[in-house]
Amino acid sequence: MSSAFVLPEPWQHALKTYPELLNEAPKVLAASDYVNHWGQRQEKMLMQLLESQQLQKKLSQDEIGQQLATMLQGVTTEELLHQKLRYFRQWMMVRIIWRDLAGLADLAETMADLSTMADVCIQQTLDILYQWQVEINGVPRRPDGHQQQMIVLGMGKLGAGELNLSSDIDLIFTYPEEGETEGGRKPLSNSEFFVRLGRKLIQALDNQTVDGFVFRVDMRLRPFGESGALVSSFDAMEEYYQTQGREWERYAMIKARAITGNEADKKALSDMLRPFVYRRYLDYGMFDSLREMKSMIAGQMHHRGMDDNIKLGAGGIREVEFIGQVFQLIYGGRDRPLQQRPILTILDLLADRKLLSTYAVSQLKRAYEFLRRTEHRIQAWADQQTHILPSDDASRYRLAQSMGFDDWRSFYSVLKDYRQQIQEHFDQLLTAPQAGDDGAGIKISLFNAQPEEKLSFIEQCGYDDPAEILAVVDKLLDLHICRNLSQTGRQRLEKLLPLLLQATGNVENADACLPRLMPLMESIMRRSAYMALLVENPMALSQLVKLCAASPLISTQLAKYPVLLDELLDPRSLYEVPEKEELKIQLLQFLSSVDADDLEQLMNRLREFRQIATLHVAAADVTGVLPLMGVGDQLTELAELLLEQVWRIAWEHLVAKHGYPPVTDNDDPQQCGFTILAYGKLGGLELGYGSDLDLVFIFDDEQEGMTDGERPVDLIVFYTRLAQRMIHLLNTVTPGGILYEVDMRLRPSGASGLLVSPLSGFTEYQQKEAWTWEHQALVRARNVIGDRQLAQKVTDVRQDILARPRDEAMLAEQVREMRAKMRQQLDKSDSQLFDLKQGKGGITDIEFMVQYAVLAWSMDLPELLVYTDNIRILGALVASGKLKPAEGEMLADAYRYYRNEANHCVLQDRPTLMSVTQLQDFPQQVVQIWQRWLGDNA
């Protein structure tokens, strides 16, 4: 068609001077009646456009803004302002349509130019109107005197920078604070000032004049819609969204972008709106919400006969946007990068995070780009806001040609395929996962069913004692919180309970497992999105039941911290336990969405990360994926990473306040003049699920001077405050519990000693004052975080103390006495049960034997000083000849066996006791070696 197109006279005349455009012109003018007629009506402006050579080149945002600024110079009346804005719009629209149809601009450039055009029109028009308003009514101010500006929020495609050729622009007007004007004819409230200003802005952009309009302005997305105030203060906005905001408004707010206003006000507004849009938990309730919205839109489209609407119809542009937005609303609160606006960027992120397959994202992106280009071609013809495919043959042929196809049939076939792909992905995403093949799913409502119906259903689920299970369910339903659920919460619980009963009925200990799940059910009733998560994700529900059946401890943790349910979504990752470096990357990513100065949120996120990582370890443990030694290693590495992060937070706070100590001028922990010495299970690489951290803080007092900040302090003060802040970060109870319980009693002089020991003081205490039991503890001590050189000095002190010559008989007597006192106070063994930790021949006996061996023999056997964990020290004792290989292997096996059983006791939430009938003969063999080394063990 373009080859037969005859250029109108004004265009022929204009293009004589620009032969390079002659090849493009027929194609463009045949596809856009708007551009064609504009050129004929505006010959002078056409020549200016051609002379500018803007048809041939890409413009930056600044260049577009500067062009409008030039056109608006000297504007003194609203009439002239309206005219110049419309001339600018015509110029830019012709330029953008030309480049699009000629194939000179890709989709991204077209959308960006249209959005920039709208931005600069809003910004510069508002600036002019604001000054005119101020001259008449004075400057709007806050009560503290600060000048107020109006913030224009761009919504929808404008907010995302994805405007189409004939888009409305959806706007919301707001301002920071109430107050009144100053310096005008008479004071006006800020509200009245900005309402007048907002009306003027709408008129400037939206009014139809002889020169057309700039943009159709839609204000219906503002709080309370058309019945709401035209402009709202930040406080009024916050109140509305906290109390009145609806789910569709959350979708709308994803794209919201402040176009005007200063950066501080923009940030304040964004921070205020973010909690409404993005929830901290995974918000799976969005699936039901989206199903309802889509069903309503589809019904309207069909009712209006608009199945050929490529935006709102089945497989249209809106469905691609919905796919991206539903994932943003579910995950965006936890994953800050998902809080971006452009849909193509979001789709790429969903592929990166494996929330959608790479194949699905590739299909959706290609389909979206094809539909958006089609949308632009439809609108380019007459500059009309339409998304309907043409129905007459001539228009269809023209559209197909402009899209690069020979005829309508070939174009429509490709379009239909793309729409089918979109619809399949959309339907797959939104299909209710619990529905059966007939869509019916489980019919019973445990809220309304008769007792005999409920009992029959429970029997079918496979429980041993259905009546007892029915009593458990009825007790839950009778709770005050359950009887007072919102309608949404009740509907979600109504769906979830039968699914839970079915899933739990399939495990071996079903009758014991279901009551364990009731505290969790009670907990998630307070936040029904977690009920939606389990309804929407059968695999998550399955993993929940599996883990709770295996471990009461896990079920207790899930009930205390339902946020952990998020981790059940992907069984592949649930049982994965990452290496330390990968875990560190995950920790930093987890904290990246928190502002560095938001200490409370940082503390909560640290606790949440520990709970998540521990759940992964426990899940791998109870399912046998992770061996015992791996459990201790993983929990130890987790504690070290969190300790380092706590050190970093505390360090940065102290340095900002007081400057750096003389030993360093940077934030490298290996140069900080401070080290953390870990004792006990952390020192011995054997941390358990609920273990305390036994820590001693040491600073290098060989350095001298003060910190170098504006408020310098002595080094002892600096390092003491550093330690205090670390303990605060670790010990403080927040909604996420505590990070770790810290035990400082092993520091020199115990509870009466300094919180942070100078190296010289630590050395002197160990040399002259420490008791034998403190030297025993030193066997398992190692530096975990801190200054590299100082850590080596502390290690040298440790080795020097442990390798001192000792009277073996006296040492044996002291170790025996200490062990006897402990057993007398702590051993819970009886004729039927063996205390795995304190029983005779148990865990503590092996630990004391290892400690005795190091203290007694390391002067001559320095290889005993290399490691701090019992298993490797036992290996060193075998290598040195102090233990026969069979004895060393037996002690190591016994130690692992005891710890494994004790570990399972913790996971089963019961005391670390074991029936003597289940014990192997480890206790007797351990006692034999004890008696050989240390004498009688009373």
From TrEMBL:
Residues 1-434 are annotated as: Adenylyl removase. The keyword Zinc does not apply. GO terms for biological process: regulation of glutamine family amino acid metabolic process. Residues 291-430, 816-900 form the PII-uridylyltransferase/Glutamine-synthetase adenylyltransferase domain. Pfam families: GlnD_UR_UTase, GlnE. Belongs to the GlnE family. Involved in the regulation of glutamine synthetase GlnA, a key enzyme in the process to assimilate ammonia. When cellular nitrogen levels are high, the C-terminal adenylyl transferase (AT) inactivates GlnA by covalent transfer of an adenylyl group from ATP to specific tyrosine residue of GlnA, thus reducing its activity. Conversely, when nitrogen levels are low, the N-terminal adenylyl removase (AR) activates GlnA by removing the adenylyl group by phosphorolysis, increasing its activity. This is Bifunctional glutamine synthetase adenylyltransferase/adenylyl-removing enzyme. The lineage of its organism: Bacteria, Pseudomonadati, Pseudomonadota, Gammaproteobacteria, Thiotrichales.
